[in-house]
Design goal:
Residues 27-100 form the DUF7344 domain. This is DUF7344 domain-containing protein. It holds the Pfam family DUF7344. The protein is α+β, with helices and mostly antiparallel strands. It has a single domain (9-116), classed as Arc Repressor Mutant, subunit A (Orthogonal Bundle). Helix content is 53%, strand content 15%. The chain has five helices and five strands. It has helices at residues 22-28, 32-42, 50-61, 67-87, 106-116, and strands spanning 9-11, 17-21, 48-49, 91-94, 99-102. The strands form two sheets. It has a three-stranded antiparallel β-sheet with strand order 3-5-4. A two-stranded antiparallel ribbon has the order 1-2. Strand 1 (9-11) and strand 2 (17-21) form a beta hairpin. The N and C termini lie far apart (38 Å).
């Protein structure tokens, strides 16, 4: 008998399969900054600016609020974390408008974050 691989598929907010495995979400959520992004978005009901998001992430992950830490976090979010979360279908990131909002895979990602905590 050959090897059998079990892949659980994540579902979109509307209940349809997202085409991504749960492992894909877990991989992108391996970074604490990305988990904080998901947590912050879960607490708001509208898109959030990258500046507001950077303040929240810096306060949560670096236990600091100096402007330099916020600016560094904002750059890291813009160039690293938000593009990865966007590519994974967790958030939508409009880099021109500098706004972040939940995407179809957000609920699955939020469930994974809640389980990890």
């Amino acid at each position: 008998m050959g090897n059998v691989t079990l892949v659980r598929m994540a579902v979109s907010q509307d209940g349809t399969p997202s085409g991504r495995s749960t492992d894909d979400y877990l991989a992108v959520l391996g970074d604490p900054n990305r988990r904080v992004v998901v947590g912050v978005l879960a607490e708001t009901d509208r898109p959030i600016s990258i500046s507001s998001l950077a303040r929240e992430v810096a306060a949560e992950t670096q236990n600091a609020s100096p402007d330099a830490k916020i600016a560094q976090t904002k750059l890291s979010l813009h160039h690293n974390h938000l593009p990865k979360l966007d590519a994974a279908g967790v958030v939508t990131y409009d880099s021109e408008e500098r706004l972040v909002a939940p995407a179809d895979g957000f609920e699955t990602a939020l469930s994974a974050v809640e389980l990890a905590n």
